[in-house]
């Protein structure tokens, strides 16, 4: 069964502090679980490396730990990519980078012919206190200011003109 009518424990997950869902299972979505010890587990679709474990499997029905990811304080996910905010104020991203949503210029790996990273990569921002993963774009609050990157078809990243960008870009306030 793809759907359940009652809550069901996810086998292999315990001491969960927070969860983030990236899309719907029927279209390849995945789930992240932040554990009390600051590590992250992932389960579900992996066509673009969303599970962050380096594997090329298209789907995992068993939660996998994301190697090397420690000290995580928050997580965010979209159908195409995943994000982790570390206690030291930095961000790690992984998954599809077709629209620059990972925030790291020059990702060299490909998943199904499109740019991606199957393992976490570091976004060049510091002093981050909040993250959000949107449809093909990402946001972060750094030093009290909002930064966005990725898809900009409908001005998602706060720019009136221009295509997507893989560089975290300051979103100007209304009075600036």
What's the structural blueprint in terms of helices and strands?
Elements: E1 16-22, E2 30-35, E3 40-45, E4 59-65, E5 72-77, E6 81-86, E7 91-96, E8 109-111, E9 114-123, E10 128-134, E11 137-142, E12 145-150, E13 165-170
Antiparallel strand pairs: 1-2, 2-3, 3-4, 5-6, 6-7, 7-9, 8-9, 10-11, 11-12, 12-13
What does it look like?
- The chain is mainly β and 176 residues long.
- It is 0% helix and 47% strand.
- It contains no helices and 13 strands.
- The strands form three sheets. A five-stranded antiparallel beta sheet has the order 5-6-7-9-8, with no helix packed on it. A four-stranded antiparallel beta sheet has the order 1-2-3-4, with no helix packed on it.
- The chain is globular.
Shape: globular
Percent helix, as a range, is under 10%
State mean pLDDT (0 to 100 scale): 89
What's the total helix number?
Answer: 0
Q: Which blocks of ≥5 consecutive residues have pLDDT under 50?
A: none
First-last Cα distance: 52 Å
β-strand amount? over 45%
Structural class: mainly beta
Radius of gyration: 16 Å
**What is the succession of H and E elements?**
EEEEEEEEEEEEE
Strand order of the largest sheet: 5-6-7-9-8
Query: How many E-type strands?
Result: 13
Main beta-sheet annotation: 5 strands, antiparallel
């Amino acid at each position: 069964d793809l759907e359940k009518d009652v809550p069901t424990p996810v086998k292999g997950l315990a001491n969960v502090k927070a969860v983030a869902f990236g899309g719907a299972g029927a279209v390849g979505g995945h789930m992240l679980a932040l554990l009390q010890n600051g590590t992250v587990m992932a389960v579900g679709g992996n066509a673009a490396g969303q599970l962050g474990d380096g594997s090329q499997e298209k789907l995992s029905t068993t939660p996998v730990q994301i190697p090397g990811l420690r000290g995580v304080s928050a997580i965010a996910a979209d159908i195409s990519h995943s994000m982790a905010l570390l206690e030291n104020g930095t961000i790690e991203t992984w998954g599809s980078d077709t629209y620059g949503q990972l925030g790291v210029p020059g990702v060299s790996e490909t998943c199904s012919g499109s740019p991606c990273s199957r393992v976490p990569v570091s976004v060049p921002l510091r002093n981050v206190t909040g993250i959000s993963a949107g449809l093909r774009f990402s946001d972060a609050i750094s030093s009290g200011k909002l930064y966005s990157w990725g898809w900009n078809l409908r001005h998602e990243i706060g720019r009136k003109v221009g295509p997507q960008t893989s560089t975290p870009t300051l979103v100007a306030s209304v009075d600036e």
